[in-house]
Design brief:
Keywords: Periplasm, Signal, Transport. It contains ten helices and twelve strands. The strands form three sheets. The protein has a five-stranded mixed sheet with strand order 4-1-5-12-6. The protein has a five-stranded mixed sheet with strand order 9-8-10-7-11, with helices on both faces. 39% of the residues lie in helices and 24% in strands. Helix 2 (53-64) packs across helix 9 (227-242).
């Protein structure tokens, strides 16, 4: 009888420990990674606090999904390696869904979608063609879809210059160290063209919408086996789209429909 009671106590203790361990695991914060160099989507304000459209949308999604989330900083080109090595759990950094990235990560449903464009000086006379970009210095953020697009399309004729942050791209364009830049149309407009530093610059060429490069929209990225987490975010995206939370946040940053078709 004593042995039976002792065994029962041991089993009870083990089960209790497992439940407690599971509870602790469940309470572990979901680490959202961004490079914070991409205003008005993601950046850090004067106090060093994460801010921007991506940040507010993520906060709303975490609240809706009842997830305890925290932010971690990571350079853009290190976002996916960091995720895969479990230094973060989710990439929330205006990352576009592309076939190449889908081979490595699991994407949520999109939370916005925009085309990409070139920007150059208003009097530069640049045309977007191999001839028009011959010898020109084109600035892009390192490791992005924009980097891949200009490299594939114009890498043989132009001088492609790659930067760790989009803010660095704008500084070199304004100072004359670049002839053109390529990036998301909305970000180029809001963070550069509509600012004082963007005076004398304009969009050139047509908007680029090729899904092979531009992708299927912008989404959160997770490890492929985190399907339950992805589903929580998908449900939360649908909910904040339906209840007006998404539109309320978007209206603070954009005068157009950022969600897209």
């Amino acid at each position: 009888m004593k042995k039976t009671m002792t065994l029962a106590l041991v089993l009870t203790s083990l089960v209790s420990g497992l439940v407690s361990g599971s509870a602790l695991a469940a309470q572990k914060p979901v680490r959202l990674a961004s490079d914070f160099t991409y205003p008005p989507f993601n950046y850090k304000d004067a106090s060093g606090t994460p801010a921007g459209f991506d940040i507010e949308i993520a906060d709303a999604l975490c609240a809706e999904a009842k997830l305890d989330c925290e932010w971690v900083s990571q350079s853009w080109d290190g976002l996916i390696p960091s995720l895969l090595s479990r230094k973060s759990d989710v990439i929330m950094a205006s990352m576009r869904i592309t076939d190449e990235r889908k081979q490595r990560v699991l994407f949520s449903d999109k939370y916005y979608q925009t085309p990409a464009r070139f920007v150059a000086g208003s009097d530069a006379g640049i045309t977007i063609s191999e001839q028009g970009l011959q010898g020109k210095r084109i600035g892009v953020q390192l490791g992005t879809i924009h980097d891949r697009y200009v490299t594939d399309k114009f890498g043989d004729v132009a001088n492609i210059r790659r930067y760790n942050g989009q803010d660095e791209v704008y500084l070199d364009l304004q100072s004359g160290r670049l002839d053109a830049v390529f990036g998301n149309s909305d970000q180029l407009a809001l963070a550069f063209l509509e600012k004082e530093q963007g005076k004398g610059f304009e969009f050139v060429g047509e908007a680029v919408t090729d899904p092979a490069y531009i992708g299927e929209g912008t989404a959160l990225a997770m490890r492929k086996n985190d399907k339950a987490l992805a589903e929580k975010f998908n449900q939360a995206i649908a909910t904040i789209r339906a209840n007006g939370t998404y539109d309320k946040i978007a209206a603070k940053y954009f005068s157009f429909d950022i969600y897209g078709e």
